[in-house]
Amino acid sequence: MSDFYVGYLPKAPAKLGRLLRAVSALLLFTAAGSAVTITMLQNPFAASAFEFGKPRGFEGVIEADPYPALLVQRPGQANGTVSRYLLVAEGKHGAASQAIAFDGKSVNLKGTLIFRDNQTMIEVVTDSITSASASGQSHVTVADLGPFDLTGEIVDSKCYLGVMNPANGKVHHDCAVRCLSGGIPPIFAVNDFRGVAATFVLADSNRKALPREALLKVVARRVHIHGRVSRVGDTLLLEAEPSAISPVS
Prior knowledge:
The protein is of the alpha+beta class. It has 2 domains: 48-131, CATH 2.40.50.140; 142-247, no CATH class. The protein contains 5 helices and 13 strands. Strands 2-3-4-6-5 form a 5-stranded mixed barrel. Strands 8-9-10-12-11 form a 5-stranded mixed β-barrel.
């Protein structure tokens, strides 16, 4: 009998059948191997989280500059050392309009935690900030670490710290532009700061917010920044002027 398969016959010729089974097995093996290889080559997701739908109560002191933050004294921390939680509003909006009236004051608020590694942020529930009876004084230790030349990426803090994963690079550019335009604090993510990965809150030399327009030109791009680094509580702060930020070619 001919090896040519005729559709109305009950089965293919034996020789052709063996060939088709071998080819099918090879294709399945190749597809499975390719899937495993592609998965292994992907960068792992960062250890970040957004506790969506699980607001909780917080108490601390509001700090307005360079970006709204809540200073919280945690039990067991050394005197004068506080945790500094960046504050953002719901959606792609900063929390300045809600927090500025409480600058330097002790408050209670409700919000949702966003966190990545040792950086924590709170998405504030709208109109939940109220004055607290406690004193509004909270001393923050500041350590000047000196000038640095660093290379990394300017990202919007809300997405990067946990709302989206991954939240950097060209694919996140449009989202980052909208977030920074809405007042979300910018942070600078580097892979090598004294041998480890780190994130910095960006500010100018007066510890005020950098001009938004200057950041929108370089957000989600690899850039070089010359500035001065300080450790403010448990937060790294990078002070630099817009002229000290240059794209890496």
